[in-house]
Fold this sequence. Notes:
- The termini are far apart.
- The protein contains eleven helices and nine strands.
- α6 crosses α10 (221-239).
- β8 and β9 (284-285) form a beta hairpin.
- By secondary structure, it is α/β, with parallel strands linked by helices.
Amino acid sequence: MDRSTFQTFLGVDLGGGKGKNTAVAVLRRHAEGVEVVRYDTGDGNPWYDRELVTFLKQHRHAVVAIDAPLSLTACVRCRVPVCPGLEACVDPTTAWFRTRSHGSTPGKKPLYTPYTQRATEVVLHEQEGILPRETLGQGMGPLTARAAHLVRALSPEFRLNENLIEVYPKATLWKLLGETTARTYKRHHAQAAVRLGKILRQLPGLTFGPGQWREHGLANDHLFDALIAAYTAYLWARDGWQLPEKDREVFSGDGWIWTPPGPPPPAPPPPEFVPGEWGYFRGKTNGKPGSA
């Protein structure tokens, strides 16, 4: 599929089984980037399954990016009636997990478990330093079950890794703006809106259409993540991201969390002390002699 033909990008921050916290963002392509043409949590009518599927299918020529696991783990997908055990299993994903079991001690907690985790989550952690949610980790059951239902309900109009992709807004921000931004963007304090507004201004080509106020996303975590999900879909289509060549068979079957390629930006240098000025570090004044 020629991704350059995609003009509309939908981001979904998926809520759990009831869906009352689900948010949707719609971005439309133009010559210089993408414009937010809609983003909301349903405007008083929550995005329950029927409403969400109907809305997404009205945009069958769009890319849909969902912030939730869109595939199940290897052991849950398995249809072998009697499990031979992880060491004897011939499933490609389980075999891949065995190569990552170095450092595990018999009788101790395993490093990874292919019944709660997918390979893509391990890659994010090992190679990128990003600790994602586990597909079937604590508290994830209702969300993963709902996402699995939606993947089937959106078929055949939407197909995984063709015009339906799994994203993780925290990982997108980590790769685009660095670790500190990704780790702290959801912390609530008096300056939270200022921090989130700065993040949105740092995303090249992102603009807001008539009536779509930037402030809406600053006041609601779900709206903000839906925006980042849709923006990730735009980058995926614009730049033609591909699955890694190495272990592609595993990731094709087991699922993949799409993040911007390349290394994250370097961490900012530590503040520089200016001699002779008590408590003054370049860019920061705390007014206390000898303190950092």
